[in-house]
Amino acid sequence: MKQLFNLIGSTIKYFATNWIAIAALAISYLNYRQNNSQIEIDSTGQSDWLLSLLLNSGESIVNENGLLHVNLRIINSSGSDISFFDLIVLSSNNKQLTYHCQKQHNVFTRLEERLIISGLKSDYDIIELNIPETNFGTLKSHSLTSLDIIVPADGISSELFVFFKTTKKNWVFRKNKIGYVNSPYQSFSASYRVEESNKPNYKEALEVLRKQ
C-alpha cells in the first residue's frame, strides 16, 4: 500500500513539475491532427461514354474515337484548405492519357472564352460537367470537390486511373504504394472500369448529330 501511495505521489509531482511541457505537447498534437491532410476519395469506379462536349458558346467538341467520362469526388475533412497538383490519368498499361481542361481553351486553340459546361451521353441525355481548370487546384476545408475527367478514347484499355498529389508531405516512415511511389508528397488515386461493350458507334452517332 505504501508503494502505491509513493507511486501516486511521484506521478502527481511529475505532472505538477512538467505541466507546461505536457500542455505544449498536447496542443502540438491537436494542431497536427487539425491540420493534417485528411483526404478521402469517393468514387463509384464506373465510367461512361459521351458523344460530345457542349460549350457555353453553343458549339460542341466531338471525337470520332469516343470520349470517356469519369467523376472524381475528393473530400477534404480537415480544417484547412489543401492544394493539389500533378493531376494525371493513366491507362492500365501505364500510358499517360490526355484529358480536357478549361485552360486548354485559349487563343492558340481558337477557343478563347469558351468553357465546357455539359456533355451529351450516348442515350442523348445531357449532363452538367465540372471540368478541371488545369492539373492543379485547391481543395477547400470541410468540402467535397467534384471533378469530371474527360479522356479521348485513343489507347484506352479495360481500366484507367486518376492520380494527384497534395502539398502535404508524407510521414517519415510512410511511402506511397501506388501512383507517385517515389514522391515525398502524399498522393491519392481512383480506378475506373471501362466497358468497351457499351461504347457507342461514334461514326453513326456523329452523322445523326450533324443532320440535326
From TrEMBL:
Keyword field contains Transmembrane: yes
Protein name from the UniProt record: Phage protein
Keyword field contains Transmembrane helix: yes
Keyword annotations from UniProtKB, A to Z: Membrane, Transmembrane, Transmembrane helix
Transmembrane segments: 12-32
Organism: Streptococcus anginosus
